[in-house]
Amino acid sequence: MTGKRARRHFSQLREIERGLIIGMKTAGWSTHRVAGQVDRSESAVINCWEQWTREGTRAWKTGSGATRKTTKREDRRIVRQALVDPTVTRSKRRADVGVAIVPQTISRHLAEANLKSKRPFRALPLTAEHQQLRLQWCQARPIWNVTDWQKVVFSDESRFVLGTDDNRVRV
Description:
Largest sheet: none
Oligomer: single chain
Radius of gyration: 32 Å
Shape: elongated
GO molecular function, one term: DNA binding
Helix content: 40-55%
Number of strands: 0
Strand content: under 5%
Main location: nucleus
GO cellular component, one term: nucleus
Number of helices: 9
Order of helices and strands: HHHHHHHHH
Structural class: mainly alpha
Subcellular location: Nucleus
Organism: Trichonephila clavipes
Protein backbone atom coordinates (compact mmCIF):
# COMPACT_ATOMS: atom_id res chain seq x y z
CA MET A 1 0.00 0.00 0.00
CA THR A 2 1.53 3.35 -1.02
CA GLY A 3 1.95 6.24 1.39
CA LYS A 4 -0.58 8.36 -0.50
CA ARG A 5 -3.24 5.68 -0.28
CA ALA A 6 -2.54 5.05 3.41
CA ARG A 7 -3.01 8.75 4.19
CA ARG A 8 -6.23 8.95 2.18
CA HIS A 9 -7.78 6.28 4.37
CA PHE A 10 -7.59 8.62 7.35
CA SER A 11 -8.90 11.76 5.65
CA GLN A 12 -12.59 12.61 5.54
CA LEU A 13 -14.70 11.64 2.58
CA ARG A 14 -15.49 14.40 0.13
CA GLU A 15 -19.07 15.02 -0.88
CA ILE A 16 -18.54 13.50 -4.34
CA GLU A 17 -17.07 10.34 -2.81
CA ARG A 18 -20.07 9.98 -0.52
CA GLY A 19 -22.38 10.24 -3.51
CA LEU A 20 -20.38 7.62 -5.41
CA ILE A 21 -20.42 5.22 -2.46
CA ILE A 22 -24.17 5.52 -2.02
CA GLY A 23 -24.78 5.12 -5.75
CA MET A 24 -22.62 2.01 -6.04
CA LYS A 25 -24.05 0.41 -2.89
CA THR A 26 -27.58 1.16 -4.13
CA ALA A 27 -26.68 -0.56 -7.41
CA GLY A 28 -25.76 -3.66 -5.39
CA TRP A 29 -21.96 -3.45 -5.42
CA SER A 30 -20.08 -5.15 -2.59
CA THR A 31 -18.36 -3.08 0.07
CA HIS A 32 -14.97 -4.44 -1.00
CA ARG A 33 -15.55 -3.48 -4.64
CA VAL A 34 -16.80 0.03 -3.74
CA ALA A 35 -13.80 0.61 -1.44
CA GLY A 36 -11.43 -0.33 -4.24
CA GLN A 37 -13.23 1.93 -6.72
CA VAL A 38 -13.17 5.07 -4.55
CA ASP A 39 -9.76 4.21 -3.04
CA ARG A 40 -11.00 4.26 0.55
CA SER A 41 -11.09 1.74 3.35
CA GLU A 42 -13.99 -0.68 3.69
CA SER A 43 -14.84 0.76 7.10
CA ALA A 44 -15.23 4.24 5.55
CA VAL A 45 -17.60 2.78 2.96
CA ILE A 46 -19.56 0.90 5.63
CA ASN A 47 -19.86 4.01 7.84
CA CYS A 48 -21.05 6.13 4.93
CA TRP A 49 -23.60 3.51 3.86
CA GLU A 50 -24.88 3.01 7.42
CA GLN A 51 -25.36 6.74 7.85
CA TRP A 52 -27.30 6.82 4.56
CA THR A 53 -29.58 3.93 5.57
CA ARG A 54 -30.05 5.22 9.12
CA GLU A 55 -30.54 8.95 8.50
CA GLY A 56 -31.25 9.25 4.80
CA THR A 57 -28.50 11.80 4.35
CA ARG A 58 -24.93 11.68 3.16
CA ALA A 59 -23.93 14.99 4.76
CA TRP A 60 -21.10 14.91 7.25
CA LYS A 61 -22.20 15.55 10.79
CA THR A 62 -20.98 18.71 12.45
CA GLY A 63 -18.80 18.51 15.53
CA SER A 64 -20.26 17.59 18.87
CA GLY A 65 -18.68 20.48 20.72
CA ALA A 66 -20.55 23.15 22.63
CA THR A 67 -22.50 25.70 20.63
CA ARG A 68 -20.99 29.14 20.18
CA LYS A 69 -22.20 31.80 22.60
CA THR A 70 -21.01 34.72 20.49
CA THR A 71 -21.63 35.61 16.87
CA LYS A 72 -18.88 36.48 14.40
CA ARG A 73 -19.86 40.12 14.78
CA GLU A 74 -19.41 39.97 18.56
CA ASP A 75 -16.05 38.23 18.09
CA ARG A 76 -14.89 41.08 15.84
CA ARG A 77 -16.13 43.60 18.42
CA ILE A 78 -14.07 41.95 21.15
CA VAL A 79 -10.94 42.13 19.00
CA ARG A 80 -11.63 45.71 17.94
CA GLN A 81 -12.07 46.79 21.58
CA ALA A 82 -8.77 45.15 22.47
CA LEU A 83 -6.99 47.05 19.70
CA VAL A 84 -8.54 50.38 20.70
CA ASP A 85 -7.86 50.04 24.42
CA PRO A 86 -5.55 47.18 25.41
CA THR A 87 -5.73 48.05 29.12
CA VAL A 88 -9.38 47.02 29.56
CA THR A 89 -9.88 43.83 31.60
CA ARG A 90 -11.60 40.68 30.38
CA SER A 91 -14.49 41.22 32.78
CA LYS A 92 -15.13 44.70 31.40
CA ARG A 93 -15.01 43.41 27.81
CA ARG A 94 -17.43 40.63 28.74
CA ALA A 95 -19.87 43.20 30.12
CA ASP A 96 -19.52 45.33 26.97
CA VAL A 97 -20.37 42.39 24.70
CA GLY A 98 -23.57 41.70 26.63
CA VAL A 99 -23.44 37.92 26.25
CA ALA A 100 -22.99 35.49 29.13
CA ILE A 101 -19.50 34.15 28.39
CA VAL A 102 -16.59 33.20 30.58
CA PRO A 103 -13.39 35.28 30.58
CA GLN A 104 -11.49 32.41 28.94
CA THR A 105 -13.66 32.90 25.85
CA ILE A 106 -12.44 36.48 25.59
CA SER A 107 -8.83 35.29 25.90
CA ARG A 108 -9.39 32.63 23.25
CA HIS A 109 -10.87 35.14 20.78
CA LEU A 110 -7.93 37.49 21.33
CA ALA A 111 -5.43 34.65 20.93
CA GLU A 112 -7.11 33.66 17.64
CA ALA A 113 -6.50 37.24 16.46
CA ASN A 114 -2.82 36.98 17.57
CA LEU A 115 -3.34 39.45 20.40
CA LYS A 116 -1.58 38.32 23.51
CA SER A 117 -1.55 39.97 26.90
CA LYS A 118 1.71 41.30 28.14
CA ARG A 119 2.82 43.00 31.28
CA PRO A 120 5.25 45.91 31.16
CA PHE A 121 8.51 45.68 33.05
CA ARG A 122 8.39 47.30 36.45
CA ALA A 123 12.04 48.09 36.04
CA LEU A 124 14.58 47.49 33.36
CA PRO A 125 16.50 44.26 34.07
CA LEU A 126 20.04 45.44 34.66
CA THR A 127 23.19 43.41 34.98
CA ALA A 128 25.42 43.85 37.99
CA GLU A 129 27.86 45.82 35.83
CA HIS A 130 25.12 48.25 34.72
CA GLN A 131 24.00 48.75 38.31
CA GLN A 132 27.56 49.51 39.37
CA LEU A 133 28.04 52.03 36.55
CA ARG A 134 24.80 53.82 37.43
CA LEU A 135 25.75 54.00 41.08
CA GLN A 136 29.19 55.44 40.23
CA TRP A 137 27.60 58.04 37.94
CA CYS A 138 25.22 59.19 40.69
CA GLN A 139 27.94 59.22 43.37
CA ALA A 140 30.11 61.44 41.17
CA ARG A 141 27.35 64.11 41.20
CA PRO A 142 26.27 64.48 44.86
CA ILE A 143 26.08 68.27 44.85
CA TRP A 144 23.84 68.76 41.85
CA ASN A 145 20.81 70.96 42.39
CA VAL A 146 17.37 70.81 40.75
CA THR A 147 18.35 72.84 37.69
CA ASP A 148 21.29 70.50 36.99
CA TRP A 149 19.05 67.41 37.22
CA GLN A 150 16.46 69.02 34.90
CA LYS A 151 19.05 68.97 32.10
CA VAL A 152 19.35 65.17 32.31
CA VAL A 153 17.09 62.98 30.21
CA PHE A 154 16.35 59.55 31.65
CA SER A 155 15.10 57.22 28.97
CA ASP A 156 15.52 53.73 30.43
CA GLU A 157 16.46 52.76 26.90
CA SER A 158 12.93 53.31 25.58
CA ARG A 159 12.36 53.95 21.90
CA PHE A 160 11.28 57.47 20.98
CA VAL A 161 9.73 58.26 17.62
CA LEU A 162 9.63 61.93 16.73
CA GLY A 163 8.47 61.45 13.15
CA THR A 164 5.69 59.23 11.89
CA ASP A 165 4.03 56.43 13.83
CA ASP A 166 5.94 53.14 13.64
CA ASN A 167 2.71 51.08 14.18
CA ARG A 168 4.00 49.37 17.30
CA VAL A 169 1.53 48.50 20.01
CA ARG A 170 2.61 50.00 23.28
CA VAL A 171 1.75 48.58 26.68
